[in-house]
Amino acid sequence: MIALAMLVLGLAIGAVVARLHRPPGQRFELFYATTVLVAVGIGGILFGFIPHVFFPDPIAERIGWATGSPFQTEVGMHNGAWGVLGLLSFRYRQGFLQATAVGLSLFLLMAGANHLRGLVGLGNHAPFNVQFIAGDWVPAAVLLTLAWKYRALRAPTPA
Fold first, then answer.
1. Cβ atoms < 10 Å from Cβ of 9
2. pLDDT above 90: residue 94
3. Per residue in 118-131, pLDDT tens?
4. Radius of gyration of the chain (CA)
5. For residues 138 and 120, what is the distance between their CA atoms, to the nearest angstrom?
6. How far is CA 22 from CA 15, 28, 29, 30, 33, in A?
7. pLDDT class of 158 with cuts at 50, 70, 90
8. Is 157 left (phi over 0), alpha (psi -120 to 50) or beta?
9. Residue 19 covered by a domain
10. Band of the pLDDT at 78, cuts 50, 70, 90?
11. How many other CB atoms are found less than 10 A from the CB of residue 54?
12. Per the structure, how many domains does the chain have?
């Protein structure tokens, strides 16, 4: 549910920042960039990188995975890399913003499918396994929708 909370926070902050921004033609880009900054950048570092790297065993237990695996550190570093891209996306929008949103969304869709496989196929009812089915798929759907809308707004209009 942390990913969903960060997404909602990002959308809310993005809406406020965009509403205050001038000129109006750049409001959606600022909304989108702020959402990625908060949900992907800050969320990825605070709630992906830090817990998996510095508190791997408690996180593994909550997901229903074996403890003591270096895989937790690897997952944390993966989340940290996406977090850095989310931060950079706000500054260097152009390709960074789209690549970060689409790339992370693809990972989230696959991770959500893996959590679903754990639930259905392996009977893993651990809280962080079950919660992250929606916690992966909903942010992915929202980020992909924002990416599509951003592309549509930036596409040249036919003459």
1. 15
2. no
3. 999 989 898 878 88
4. 17
5. 19
6. 13, 11, 12, 10, 15
7. low
8. beta
9. yes
10. very high
11. 11
12. 1
The average confidence (pLDDT) of the chain is: 91
Say if residue 43 is exposed, middle or buried (CB neighbours under 10 Å; 0-12, 13-18, 19+).
buried
In this structure, which amino acid lies at residue 53? V
Determine, yes or no, domain membership for 35.
yes
What band does 41 get if pLDDT is binned at 50, 70 and 90?
Answer: very high
Amino acid type, 103: G
6 in any annotated domain: yes
Confidence of residue 159 (pLDDT cuts 50, 70, 90): low
Q: Which residues of 86-124 are buried (b: 16+ CB within 10 A; e: fewer)?
A: bbbbbeebeebbbebbbebbeebbebbeebbebbeeeeb
- Is residue 139 domain-resident? yes
Spatial CA neighbour of 96 closest among 47, 136, 147: 147
- What is the rounded distance in angstroms from the CA atom of residue 96 to the CA atom of residue 89? 5
What is the extent of the structural domain holding 15? 2-154
- Determine the pLDDT at residue 144: 98
Torsion of the alpha carbons at 78, 79, 82 and 84, rounded to the nearest 10: -100
The residue type found at 143 is L
